[in-house]
Amino acid sequence: MTVVTPPPGTEIARFLDWLRTVRGLGFTSYADLHAWSTTDLDGFWSAVAEFFAVRFHTPPAAVLARREMPGAEWFPGATLNYGEHALRTTGDAPAVIAYSQTRDRVELSWDELRDQVARAREGLRRLGVERGDRVVAYAPNIPETLVAFLATASLGAVWASCAPEFGARSVIDRFAQVEPSVLLVVPGYVYGDKPIDRTAEVAALRAGLPTVRHVVAIPYGAGDVPDALPWDALLGEPGELAFDPVPFAHPLCVLFSSGTTGRPKAIVHGHGGILLEHLKNHALSWDLQSGDRILWFSTTAWMMWNALVSGLLVGAGAVLIDGNPVHPDPGWQWRLAEETGATLMGASPGWLMACRAAGVEPTRDHDLSQIRQIGAAGSPLPAEGYRWVADRFPGALLNVGSGGTDVCSGIVQGGPWQPVVEGEISGSALGVAAAAFDADGKPVVGELGELVITEPMPSMPVGFWGDPDGSRYRATYFDLYPGVWRHGDWVRFSETGSVVVAGRSDATLNRGGVRLGTAEFYRVVEELPEVADSLVVHLEDPAGGNGELLLFVVPAPGVELDDALRARIARELRSALSPRHVPDRVVAVPAVPRNRTGKKLELPAKRILLGAAPEEVASRDVLADPTSLDAFVELAR
């Protein structure tokens, strides 16, 4: 038998050596390792904890006391603290490098970060924050936000954050659910070259969150927050860098769903689950090592912010970016990658395709030889994007993944021991028993089905805040297949394990009894030079007919959607996909509605076309372009 090993020097290679030496386990392929990780859950997750030297203040009585979902009980009896592991590294090397269009570059060494967290912890204690209290932040991706998060975690208090581009109503819809006692805010920020004043929104938050006892104002942007404790005063006294041991499932943070299909879900993640999942993911998939740097543009409202700052867990420094990600031009982030020596460069597929369209040549114009991985998540990356990255970064691994806020990590993605498959995702992540199910709950390969997870993961939510009997939690993930997690994506697994995500399952198109994935349309239509963006929805026929398939396109600059272009779009869809994919109508719109992480919002557009009021389907604050649903409102009329 030929033994295939991962590249030497990678973290997964080091993990395999450790498994062989310490556990007596040998694996000859990623598929073998993955199979073990999803069948011997006790063995795999205990190995993760031991390999990464997780510090249990009280050792666990078991690894997995109850395997059924929902309700799997991980590491019962154990106590630990996420913050302690994030701040294990010491010294004067940079832990945080922050760039902003609001102020100059900020850098904190590991020792400076540890000192600021100790001071913030002491400041929160003076404000009366105790274990279980909620601390929330209306703040951007800046060092102060990270410091406050780690200080909150150190106390066993619970963290939640929203980006300041959100309007007050959207933030109150989220924060009011957790009844916070402390609110951190910024008075404003600069986006590109445009100053944004948020003092009115801050005042509305204070009025709309009656449980808040203290407001802390971070000096950022123009404006003042009256009667607030200044950030410098919160950090005014030295403190002990201590970490309160909490149970494995004790709430670490609350992440909120997008709110595009109803009230945002308040998803509770625990200290132990996020710690183990991010140690596993960041080292074994992203290959982050001590001394590395991770640069991944994110706002504090996206789970990628939590993943970004978790680079600290493995001793990697975090590059924080706030502002317009393409200002003054699409190449700005590549310049930051060169300047910071980023080894993992995170990118949204939309930004990569924008760089391609703009003729950006990152490796010609910058020394990016230190980049070992380029991560892409948030939406599907077309095959042309794979080729663009491969041509420019032949020595780096393109790691395309898909996961979600619900598990705060990737479900399917790549890694150093997996092949890159053009236009597809390499496979399931370690420890994730992912599959596609048909309507009868049977696994399918080679055809589209519901993305499911058949075995528990430590980072599955502790629950939803304000859902004491767990009914909303069960209805969200376990309504269709009892005992099996249904994630809400429509996917196809190949015989070799690679994956295509065809869109959200609630947005798939049921035409003549055949379900069509939305992402398949976009891969074809958006490669046409005449089309800048697109959105497809299917309006079902209540009488049981085929309904109407509508394709909305944003024409490229200088292009008019005429009958010739409509005919070309139809021909391309017919030849590349099938006659079922040919739309009944092709309509021009000025913008495609997307949320702030770049995901297209097919379902809100569809609901508006079926007669729903726009304020019922999506708050404008969750839209990347607040006007992007207006055209659909007009069409509905």
Automatic annotation (TrEMBL):
Gene3D superfamilies: 3.30.300.30, N-terminal domain of ligase-like
InterPro entries per record: Acac_CoA_synth (IPR005914), AMP-bd_C (IPR025110), AMP-bd_C_sf (IPR045851), AMP-binding_CS (IPR020845), AMP-dep_synth/lig_dom (IPR000873), ANL_N_sf (IPR042099)
Keywords, sorted A to Z: ATP-binding, Ligase, Nucleotide-binding
Pfam families: AMP-binding, AMP-binding_C
Gene Ontology terms describing biological process: lipid metabolic process
Domain annotation AMP-dependent synthetase/ligase: ranges: 84-456
Keyword Ligase: yes
AMP-binding enzyme C-terminal domain mapped to chain residues: 524-599
One annotated GO molecular function: ATP binding
Transmembrane segments: none
Family: Belongs to the ATP-dependent AMP-binding enzyme family.
Name the UniProt record assigns to this protein: Acetoacetyl-CoA synthetase
Organism whose genome encodes this protein: Pseudonocardia cypriaca
Organism classification: Bacteria, Bacillati, Actinomycetota, Actinomycetes, Pseudonocardiales
